[in-house]
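Our preliminary data section would be incomplete without showing what the modeling component actually yields. Below, a chain of 138 amino acids is followed by its predicted structure, encoded as tokens that our downstream tools consume directly.
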Amino acid sequence: MKKTPQRLAILNYLKGNKTHPSAIDIYKAISKKFPTMSLATVYNALEALRQEGLVKELHTDPKKKRFDPETAPHNHAICMRCGLMQDLKTDLSIEVPADIKDDFDVKEVQVEFYGVCKRCRKRMQKSESLNSTVDPRS
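Predicted structure:
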């Protein structure tokens, strides 16, 4: 793989990044430094980095691919309201059932927890308390 300035910028952006950004997020973040770079260049660079095992493509959102610089096996907690995705370092392993092994070439197993993050829960509680407030004028 050629180490182009764009690929290095993408790798640098992803290094230590815990937001699991999409290609569009990455493009927006580094396009100021590379104003002539296209979104297609970002997608192509991410594919090259994925093939080299330097980033992992996540399939948690059917509307957009997200990318993870953490390529070691790990799981995620995903907020169903805001889309926040957090890495989980828990040791959760699932044995692939024999009937699936026979019919399906399993490449990877991931566990994903879906729920509502702390920030969204606070927002929800705030809006609930606002809605349940008695109007002193009535």
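Confidence is low (pLDDT under 50) at residues 133-138. The helical segments are 5-14, 23-30, 39-51, 98-103, 118-131. Preliminary results of this kind motivate Aim 1 of the renewal.
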